[in-house]
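User: I'll paste a sequence; please echo it back and then give the predicted structure.

Assistant: Echoing your sequence first, then the prediction.
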Amino acid sequence: MLNEFKDFIAKGNVMDMAVGIIIGAAFTAIVSSLVADLINPFIGLFMGGIDFTNMYVVLSGEVAAGTSLEAAREAGAAVFAYGSFIMAIINFLIIAFVVFMLVRNVNKIKEAATADEPEAEEAPAGPSELDVLLEIRDSLAKQG
């Protein structure tokens, strides 16, 4: 069983998947920073200073007006954090778009690489079985 596990891990697909997951996790951190640090300020600027990360509704508990989402959660209030959900959607859309662009470009590169490869010339086909039989018949007819 241990040898089967080693064979499974050694397969290229498993290693490719592991690398993809690690790169994906690092990429998610980059996109989260992009959204939080670069895109959110512009969205807030165009929407009159609205900060999505602190948009919530208090469902139960006492929270002073203007309290941040983090402070409301620390106070033990049950909050409906729809701003965090909006940010998660924005993150997803950005990640999905960037992945789409990467896959699109990789596919173009693959297509260009296969188009540049010279096509293998077909080897001339030998005589068919019928041709050989006709040749034998003709040869026997000449001898007889």
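The chain has one domain: 2-117. The chain has five helices and two strands.
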